[in-house]
Every structure is written in C-alpha cells, then in structure tokens.
Amino acid sequence: MEAQNYDNYEEEDEELYEHHRIVVDPKQELLRIDKFLMDRLPNVTRNRLQDAIKSGFVKVNEKNVKPNHRIHPSDVITIALPEPPRDTEVLPENIALDIVYEDEHVLVVNKPAGMVVHPAYQNWSGTLANALIWHFQNLPTMPDNDGRPGLVHRIDKDTSGLLVIAKTEQSMTSLAKQFFDHSIERTYHALVWGEPEPTKGTIDVNLGRSLKDRRVTAPFPEGDHGRTAITHYEVIKPLRYVSLVKCNLETGRTHQIRAHMKHLGHPLFNDATYGGDRVIKGTTFTKYKQFVDNCFKMLPRQALHARSLGFVHPATGKQVYFERDLPEDMNSVIDKWEKYVNMVD
Asked: Which numeric CATH code is attached to 3-81?
C-alpha cells in the first residue's frame, strides 16, 4: 500500500477491488483495527494502514471506521483498493538498459521517456524493474518495497533521465537515507511555457494530492494541506514563448517540478496533466498554432529530463556525479523554437 495514493480519495470516483477479506476470530479480544491488521498484513507500516483507514479503503462490516476503532469477534474486515490484486513478483524481461555507470554496489541508468519505473496497475510489464531483474540477480528490496528491486527513487513514465539503483543491501540503506535526508543532488531540465520572472528563484509551496482529483498534485500556498516541497529554478535559455529552465530539487514530491511550474504560471511544454498541452503563450493565429502542434508531435510528452545526479557512494564514501544531455526529442523542439524566434524577430 502506498500512502500517497490514499490522500483525498473519493470512493465514488473509481471502482475498488477487494484485496483482503478477514473474518475476526470468535475469541478475539477487543483491539484497535490498525494494530490488528499490522499482525496480518506483511510489509505494511502502521502509518500507511492508518492512512488507508482514514481514506475509506478499510471497512468493518461494510462500514467506514477510524484507526482507533476496536474490532470485535466475528467482524468482517475488507480492504479494497483502486488497483486489482497483483502478485508482487517481478518477471524478468530482456529490455536494453542505457547504463551510465556500474560497479558492484550501484548502477546508474538513463531511463528513456515512456518507460515506467516499476510495475503498477496497467503497467505490469515493460518496466525498468522488469529489465533489472533480467540483467541482474538478487537485487535488494526494502520493507514495503515489494516489486521494486534495487529502486530507491523513481521518475515519471514520460520523464527521461538518470536513476540510481542499489545492488546490495548496504547500498540500498545508504541511498535511501540520503534521499530521506534530501542530500541527493538532482538537476532537471524542463521546457516551460513563457519566460518566468524572476529568472532565478525558489518555489517553496506545499504540495499534496488535489482535493478535486487525486491523480493530480496540487499546490497549497497557505500550508494547510500537503507536505513541504522546495524547488530551485533558473532560466538558462529564454525563447520568448518558451524557456529552458534548470530545476534543482530540495525535496522529492510526486510531480514536484510539474506542479510547481504550473503554480508559477509556466506549465511544462506539452504536459497534458498540468495544462501545458495547449497554447499558453503567443498568438492564436492558425500558422502559429500549427507550429505548436508540430512541436507537440515531435515531443509527445511533458518536456522534462533528469539531467544530473550526485550522491555519496555507499562503499567509498566519496561524492560521485553523473550527467546526461537532453534526449533528441527535447533538443529538436528547442532547436525548432530557436529558429522560430529568430525568424519572427
């Protein structure tokens, strides 16, 4: 169970699939439901159970309850989630990997856009995890990390760029702590609509699941919802209608850059989820719209690339740094915008 999937969930929005049905023993003593389930559901933390209960995924005798609800003998507890039940086993698949660096402790790969990092609903195969299982044996996992061998972080399906994979338990623990401490250096390049002002700054705005659509990350400027999220940005190539922006993550929230840049008024180019798949800056003339549509066809995804990654090597204790240039689709669209701007000047 992932707690981030439970925030602000409205049951009527999606079909739920029953994952567990537990009939309480007739001799069971009164016990809080979260404590009761902790002993019966492996690899699930108490916090995640409480989030699931609060969000209505857990019912007792078909009724919603609170985490401090006490179960009684013969109660029927059901746990239903939006995703169908699935075995956590990841099957090996012979998928080529763009390996940037590898030793006996860590692996750094350059993930192409369109590849999902780990299996999930509607994407059970063709993922980076499937490829890793094929290429390597006995990759470690962490508690609550079934189905994600060696993975300590992820990037969105349609975001390209660098990921580090742990090849040993020691590496997994070390990297997980560095991510938890926000000491990992991560730089992204994004093509956004317009020219942000100021051209360099910090976005310190809480992010969380949207209260209207749980699939979207929303900003909470008042800090009344969500979690702390900090993005440092700098415009490195202004092109009047669009800009290439460098973003450094201080935190790592779901869709952080995409949601923060939308909040700033400059959504990522062709980011359908956050409104960047339409003309945001420029005229409505037919020729201009045709030009933009052609750019969308060349770059059929949000324009985001995880360009660099720096961390302390788990075995040597030394700082290491890796970088990969923009992929062809982003480079081509940027070149096209440069030529367009020069032509209309």
From this structure: 3.10.290.10
